[in-house]
Amino acid sequence: YYQFNHQWISAINRYNKILDEHSTSVYTEETLFRLVEIYYSLGLYEEAKRYAATLQFNFPKSDWYQKSYELVKDLT
Question: Greatest CA span in the chain, whole angstroms?
Fold first, then answer.
């Protein structure tokens, strides 16, 4: 909800809460991807790459990782 209404800080806080409280949830991969999306949209590329790297390390075969890689692959 927050992300799609461009309430970035609220969205980041919500996603981080999901990661903190439900780190083994089936939503962990998507949550990490959503954080990549938000940080990329805000121009915070180092943060986007950090979350993409976390996805790669923990879920290397995930479709969510592939999507995040497409966003950050050309960032230097």
Answer: 32
